[in-house]
Amino acid sequence: MNNDYYEIYTIKSGDNLYSIGKKYNINPALLSALNGLNDDDYIYPNQEILIPKSGYSYYISTNGDTLDMVANKFNTNIGDVVESNTIYLLPGQLLIHKN
Fold first, then answer.
1. Residue 96 bridge partners (DSSP)
2. By C-alpha distance, which of 60, 74, 69, 58 is closest to 26?
3. What is the 8-class DSSP label of residue 53?
4. Which residue, 5, 34, 47, 49, could crosslink 11 as a Cys pair with Cβ 3.0–4.6 Å?
5. 8-34 pLDDT tens trace
């Protein structure tokens, strides 16, 4: 995993995805998806999760996406998306773009 894109956060007692998302200004649904969790999954103290770093946009592809659609979501061109990612454009693939 490229540490340019993420930092590691260690769960503390009382944490939940909503509170962590609020602390880091990240949508809890994106936070759970980036970590392979469901929104209602239990997280436990000392568990490590990835926190996306600021300065990047994140998108998880869905069935039917095209490179043009993803480039539009990032407000960039297809070349920039391809340069920043290993592209197979499968559902559930994480795509990243430097803002």
1. 58
2. 58
3. P
4. 47
5. 999 999 999 999 999 999 989 889 988
Q: Which residues, 6 or more positions from 25, have their beta carbon under 8 angstroms from its beta carbon?
A: 54
**How remote is the C-alpha of 78 from its chain's centroid?**
19
> Taking the model in full, what pTM does it have?
0.69
Residue range(s) defining the domain that contains residue 20? 6-52
Separation CA 99–CA 92 (nearest Å): 21
Q: Is residue 1 part of a domain?
A: no
Q: Do 74 and 62 belong to one domain? A: yes
Structure tokens at 41: 């999954």
Same-domain check for residues 29 and 13? yes
Whole-angstrom Cα distance, residue 50 to residue 75? 25
Look at residue 33 and give its three-state secondary structure.
Answer: helix
CATH number at residue 88: 3.10.350.10
| Helix, strand, coil share (%) of the chain residues, nearest 5 | 30, 20, 50
